[in-house]
Design goal:
Helix content is 46%, strand content 18%. With 302 residues, it is an alpha/beta fold. It has two domains: 4-216, Spore Coat Polysaccharide Biosynthesis Protein SpsA, Chain A, CATH 3.90.550.10; 242-301. Strands 1, 2, 3, 4, 5, 6, 7, 8 and 9 form a nine-stranded mixed beta sheet that branches. Helix 10 (244-270) packs antiparallel against helix 11. The longest helix is centred in the C-terminal third of the chain and has 27 residues, at 244-270. It is globular, with a radius of gyration of 20 Å.
């Protein structure tokens, strides 16, 4: 069975990191390697990683240069992993504060093998998650239901151009997809969203409809889970607290971000035309045109 590299970006993670690593060490799938990049922690995270690496030779710490943010950190990890492990074909992404259930790797890997039709097909597999408190008490047995998200099987790119339904810490990708997607440019809003778009446009996305992670919620989550109704209230409060001019600016920025990411996807895919249907490229062109027209209308109103 193939080896798998797990990519972990840490930042001030000393409180939960030990538990996360122990959950990987308890996996039924044992042929894994953990590649860690620290994003400028000022607690004892680095010391803990070095200690864990001495105890388990499957754990590797790459060099880093300060705080660059989650997207650039995972981009650096991805590029390093491709070079450091040239014979490894599968890569997973992880968060420092989660707990992996012992079947996570094997279940995800089994779905990966179902999705792969040939060696050149870029594939991403993601799963559901169980939302828990900082003490691991259950909030919801399904993150997807909690957020009122669903895996889009038939036309994933059409949805992923405007909304992300993939959670990075559940993701496995094959080498072909990672090679296609890196480096993550400044136009990338979030690494999991970007990987999902690349897979939807040029390959395949699989979904394991089962929670494989305890997705811990606490005050320091980069992007945490809040229930759908609470999310709506939060958005509405923010919107109504803004002036009309500020709302226009926010809408314009959101549209600009979507345009930039879709344009970057078009540029990447254009270089891989043997992988991508012409219809997909035309769809991306039309999508950017529609967003641009909407942003122009908003700008005119403001």
């Amino acid at each position: 069975m193939s080896s798998i590299v797990i990519l972990l970006s840490t930042y001030n993670g000393e409180r939960y990191l030990q538990g996360f690593v122990e959950s990987i060490q308890k996996q039924s799938f044992v042929d894994w390697k953990l590649l860690v990049r620290d994003d400028g922690s000022n607690d004892h995270t680095l010391k803990l990683i070095r200690s864990l690496a001495l105890e388990d030779k499957r754990i590797h710490l790459m060099g880093s240069h300060g705080n660059v943010g989650v997207v650039k950190s995972f981009s650096a990890l991805s590029e390093e992993a491709l070079q450091m492990f040239p014979k490894v074909n599968y890569f997973m992404f992880a968060d420092q504060d989660d707990v992996w259930l012992d079947f996570k790797i094997i279940k995800t890997f089994e779905e990966m093998k179902k999705q792969e039709r040939d060696d050149d097909l870029p594939v991403l597999v993601h799963t559901d998650l169980k939302v828990v408190t900082s003490g691991l008490d259950e909030i919801s047995s399904s993150f997807m239901r909690y957020q009122q998200l669903r895996h889009e099987r038939k036309q994933p790119l059409g949805v992923l151009l405007i909304q992300n339904f993939i959670t990075g810490c559940t993701v496995m990708v094959n080498r072909r997809l990672l090679e296609l997607a890196v480096p993550f440019s400044s136009a990338v809003i979030m690494h999991d969203w970007w990987l999902g778009q690349c897979a939807a446009a040029a390959g395949s996305i699989g979904f394991v409809n089962e929670s494989t992670i305890l997705y811990r919620q606490h005050e320091n989550n980069t992007l945490g889970a809040i229930g759908f109704s609470k999310k709506v209230v939060k958005v509405l409060k923010r919107r109504f607290s803004l002036t009309k001019q500020e709302r226009y600016k926010l809408n314009l920025q959101n549209l600009k971000d979507l345009i930039d990411q879709s344009n970057q996807l078009y540029r990447v895919l254009k270089q891989q035309e043997t992988l991508v249907e012409e219809e997909t490229l035309l769809m991306l062109e039309e999508f950017s045109d529609i967003l641009y027209q909407n942003s122009s209308a908003l700008l005119h109103k403001s």
